[in-house]
Amino acid sequence: MADFEIGDVVGCKKFGPMDHDFQGVVEKVYNNSIMVSINDFDPADKSGVNELNGRAVIRQSEAKMIKAVPREEKDDDDADEKKTAKKKPAKSRKKVTKKADKKK
Question: What residue spans carry the Basic and acidic residues bias annotation (predicted)?
């Protein structure tokens, strides 16, 4: 399965109201699917595209990468810093009430 990013151009298989394969640009990436803005389609599918409001959510496994946007390399140091920042222990708070103060 390819890693998709926003801006990638992908080819999609026909489904639902679409009678032909189409192409689109990735607008949003989910865990196992992507939202695609349909921009290149068969003229016979114009009513299908209108019915879908120009967008479709498709499985990543069924999408074919046509043109990828330039990828930025992710630094391992930045990822390690984010992990250590999340692992800070929570502060323990001792609850003090007026009754506890009077008993002493």
Answer: 64-73
